[in-house]
Specification:
Length: about 80
Amino acid sequence: MARRLDALRPSNRTVLEPWVVEVTLSRFGSRRLSKVEQDVIVKATRAPHKVKWPDWWDVFPWQSLFCEAVAQLQGKISLKGM
């Protein structure tokens, strides 16, 4: 169901198992999540690359990680001089 990563560290976090995410999303019926909600689910899943995401899903693990990395780099690197 859920797993605590690095349980002994103060920075631990609890994540969802991939099969729980799949079962939950299959029960949504016609309800859809916003892209922000989808991003939260992707980040809260232990191994998001193992989830069989529904056809209507827009935010995938590789997009979420890439967007986060780009945002971090934009804050650290200035391209004004180029």
